[in-house]
Amino acid sequence: MRFNLLGPLEAVSEDGPVEFGGFNHRAIAGFLLLRANEVVPTSKLIQALWGYDTPATSRKMVHNGVSALRRIIDRHARPDGSVRLTTAPPGYRLTVADGHLDLWHFRRQVELGRAEIAEGQRESGTDKLRSALALWRGPALADLAENGIAWPELKAVTGLRMSVFVCLAQDSSGAV
Residue 176: pLDDT above 60? Predict the structure, then answer.
């Protein structure tokens, strides 16, 4: 199973596209993917979904959303454990192996490209940066952002994208 969040949220299994369900399920998946391989406290998920205007049943709603997401992952992911959603106090961890998330590919290409530029391999480095930018299909989590989602984690990813544009512009002007 592969996830794409550099544009509208997508999941793809060996059988094709995977549907997440409604907005809350998509938001939970998007937030966990932005923090893939980290324990995300339930309180952070609640704040991400509702800010400070939380419904009385917010914990139950998050639990139900995570359970639904877990069923989707269990149904579509390979049995090798490359993608799994586990309960990990004080919340949940969405484990996504390297290469199963477009954000991982983006960060990796940016890291390699910048390192090559720093070592004087400008052409190869800028090719990697352009390759990283080519992974984007629009604003990160565009479908969620359109509905008012503005998480700091999302802004950080967008900031990294902008820094790549700046690096390429500086390189083309000879400032790198």
Answer: no
Q: Which fold has domain 102-172?
A: Mitochondrial Import Receptor Subunit Tom20; Chain A (1.20.960)
Model-level pTM greater than 0.70? Answer: yes
What letter would DSSP give residue 100? S
Residues of the chain with CATH 1.10.10.10: 2-96
Average pLDDT over residues 106-110: 98
Cα distance between residue 89 and residue 42, in whole Å: 9
What's the number of CA atoms in the CB half-sphere (13 Å) around residue 120?
A: 0
Residues linked to residue 87 through DSSP beta bridges, in sequence order: 92
- Give the helix ranges, DSSP H, for 12-95: 23-34, 42-50, 58-76
- What does the alpha-carbon distance between residue 6 and residue 55 come to, in Å, rounded to a whole number? 30
2-96: CATH, from 3.10.129.10, 3.40.50.720, 3.40.630.40, 1.10.10.10: 1.10.10.10
Residue 124 has pLDDT above 70, yes or no: yes
Q: Residues 34, 151: contact at Cβ < 8 Å?
A: yes
Residues 6 or more apart in contact with residue 93 via CB below 8 angstroms: 37, 38, 39, 40, 85, 86
